[in-house]
Specification:
Structural class: mainly alpha
Strand content: under 5%
Number of strands: 2
CATH topology: ABC transporter involved in vitamin B12 uptake, BtuC
Low-confidence stretches: none
CATH superfamily: ABC transporter involved in vitamin B12 uptake, BtuC
Distance between the termini: 55 Å
Shape: globular
Order of helices and strands: HHHHHEHHHHEHHH
Oligomer: single chain
Number of domains: 1
């Protein structure tokens, strides 16, 4: 039971990083990222290949995942500069599918559909519940560091510029803000956080494969951010943990329903998640932690 609870909390922390990534790019900046699973997978594969096949230490793998995610985010953003903002959603969706297909077909690079197994971990796996406890501390510290950093960034003049760009980037440009550079910076930071989350996931499970990075991950993270509050780092963190706990709770509730198959139970779980989100948006349309009006400091 302790191992299962540890697994839920670790997974919640990883989803909290993904939710904070989406919160920055979508909630604060207004850039829709439908390819979050792609940056998640890129970070996982970058760290796994470097540590498993390159023999690098795990911290180096985590750093490589951050860099890989950030660079990919910049490339994706720059490639859409001459397009309307709506096309960013399509480009990111295509990027995620490209990463997944490359991982499935380039056997020499990623192991193909068999994936990569035996990925090193920063802690000994034979500790049992202790391994989950140590990994939970690691993930929680990184999630809280991301929370503190994003709170500081969003409350800074740079964060106010992000909000201005989200509301009307033409007005922000007229006011003298470098819209293109700021959008690229925000998306790059968000993608780097998603890459870190992917690396943590790979080192925790010790195995990754292309079918583990389906678009459903992106949908779940959107649900978490919407429920928690799409422009507050704390809302993203609470929404991610709440989503994981609720989804895992429906597993037991569906098992209690009499006379249904496993497929029907899975469908009931998805229905329950959708109904919960509808009820939350009905009574808390801005999420559990709505965005607060921020006044510029008096000089």
């Amino acid at each position: 039971m302790l191992n299962y609870l540890g697994f839920i909390l670790v997974l919640g922390g990883i989803y909290a990083l993904l939710a904070q990534s989406l919160m920055l790019s979508w909630g604060v900046t207004g850039m829709v990222n439908l390819g979050l699973a792609g940056f998640f997978a890129l970070g996982a594969y970058a760290s796994a290949m470097l540590t498993k096949w390159g023999g690098a230490p795990v911290p180096v793998g985590l750093l490589a995942a951050i860099v890989a995610g950030g660079v990919a985010g910049l490339v994706v953003t720059i490639s859409t500069l001459r397009l309307r903002d709506d096309y960013l959603a399509l480009v990111t969706l295509g990027f995620a599918e490209t990463i997944r297909l490359v991982a499935a077909n380039e056997v020499w690079l990623t192991g193909g559909s068999d994936g990569i197994s035996g990925i090193p971990s920063p802690f000994p796996r034979d500790l049992g519940a202790g391994f989950n406890g140590l990994y939970l501390v690691l993930v929680s510290v990184l999630a809280l560091l991301a929370l503190a950093a994003l709170n500081r960034l969003i409350s800074s003049p740079w964060g106010r510029a992000l909000r201005a760009i989200r509301e009307d980037q033409t007005v922000a440009a007229v006011a003298g803000k470098p819209v293109t550079r700021i959008k690229a910076e925000a998306f790059g930071i968000a993608a780097a956080i998603a890459g870190l989350a992917g690396a943590l996931y790979g080192h925790y499970t010790s195995y990754i494969a292309p079918d583990m990075f389906e678009p459903l991950i992106t949908i779940y993270v959107f649900l978490a951010v919407t429920a928690g509050g799409n422009a507050r780092p704390l809302g993203a963190l609470v929404g991610a943990y709440g989503l994981i706990v609720f989804v895992e709770g429906t597993r037991f509730a569906a098992a209690l329903a009499p006379g249904i198959s496993a497929v029907q139970a899975a469908s009931l779980r998805e229905i329950a998640v959708g109904l919960a989100l509808l009820l939350l948006l009905r009574f808390k349309p801005a999420g559990l932690f709505p965005e607060r009006s921020q006044k510029a400091p008096i000089r």
